[in-house]
Predict the structure.
Amino acid sequence: MKAITLKSIIAIIAISFFQNEIYAQAVNWEKTSKQNKNLLHANIGAEYGITAGLGYHRLIPVKRFPLWIGGEFSMPLGNQLADDFKVKLGAQIRIAAYNYFQFSARVQGIARRYHNQSVTLFNFGSDFAGTLGYYRKHWFWGAEAGFDKAIVTHFKHSDWYKNNIYDNVQDGWYEPATGGDFYYGLQGGFCMKKTDFTLKAGRVLQQDFKSQPLLPFYGHLGVNFNF
Amino acid sequence: MKKSFIIYLPFIIFALFSFSCTKERYIDEPGNLVSKTVVQDSTLPSILVNGALLHSEAFGSEDNTLIICIHGGPGGDYRYMLNCKTLATKGYRVVFYDQRGAGLSQRFPKRWYKSQGGDAINKIFYDELKGVIAHYKTSASQKVILLGQSWGAMLATGYTGKYPNEVNGLIVAEPGGLKWDDVVDYISESRSFKLWSESLNDATYIDQFMTGKEDQHEILDYKAGLIGSVNTIVGDVGSDLGNNAPSYVASRSGAVVNAASYELGQDFKPDFSAGINNFSTKTLFIYSSNNKAYPDSWAEKISSAYPNKEIFKAQGVGHSGMFDQVNFWTTTMEPKIISYIQSL
């Protein structure tokens, strides 16, 4: 069959049930302290593919609103490791706290690349999310919801595409926004002295709230090192 | 001051990302990422059949035996079959058409396909093929040969089973399956991505760059084309049309008709072998050596539905290679097809 098939979609959806991943690192706000201002984190899971990521955040105490700023780098697995990747830079701030319940917000700028035999895409986007959670010193859980917007994308098609698919394709920057996905899910973690183990999983919906991506779920298993 | 700058740096970067470009270029504008359809470009060859404007052309003398080329998909196009047009120089009238919602033919909303319900295969595909034949047929005695590949072979088989007396010859190349369960098994086998593979990554990673609503054909067709252009499991390597290629390059997937067809298939489980036992004329059944999802055992199973057949294994090519590789076409496939037609 020459075109993508429902069966393949079903197979990929089935695959996603067994793979967990995330959008950004889960933080235990109850553990923030002036001694541990640095957070190095790594994760593996699924986010539009099977991915692995590394990141660093630094704590900026802003009175009663602790703020983590930093960045993350992730890439999907595959034969060509460097052809696709995503970089996120941004901040995560605690906005409100009541007893052990805390609400935080995250805003990140995104730069990401996609490459296959037909096209190379480079996109600038944004990711906004809010997390409401219950945080104790040694564990936490929370629920998050967010929106990932592909704001402007550059298309550069290969000679193969122009010779085989469409010779008059228009390369260049495309805007307004070329895409956008909502996501929501749960996160939790188990925390030791300097190390946290985190888990996030949830669902992804396209911005029309009806369609869904080929991998309609995300999940992530992560490790945080505080120092 | 320095600390404040660091805090606001991400927001500044985000603002730059958001507002730095002013020239607008839309991904859903016709002609930008995928070629225009016959509705959007009146210079393309087209015919009006069964309420749809179809991209279609024919080669050879009008009164010669008709060879109707039926492409794969659902949602493919006929471009990769254009090597077959050399049959026009051998005394045949070769007809190509892009099915409704596919290739460069007119698009329809998904709800239109779904509204056809249990009679969808008849109304969408069989009636259309009947209309195409009627459009090009110049006399009642003109012979009609159907030549279908992949989904096109399934469609040709189903049509022949329904109208066995209106088809004078049937050439089928690797129909995935004829009964729905076999169709599902074949699709599963031919699209079995490995978790860590580049193929899976190529199919899924793009979803964060582009999203299309249910009937945004330009976006959905573009994404489907990126995913479906090459499949190493079935041995496809990309078309080589040589001098048979037209002056323009415009191949386009039909994502909506593809998705709607599979959903209808899941709902109604059509049997494309229905009635084919009434077709006593010899069928030429072709399969390829490089399609890992189509071993000898599968060819034997699927071909068993045809009561009178000649089985031919195309050596050294894949699923589409018997038609889209010009050298193989010239040296092997075209002589085989001519020999088959002359034997009828």
About this structure: Chain A is about 5% helix and 60% strand. Residues 1-24 of chain A have pLDDT under 50 and may be disordered. Chain A has one domain: 6-226. The first strand of chain A starts at residue 38 and ends at 46.
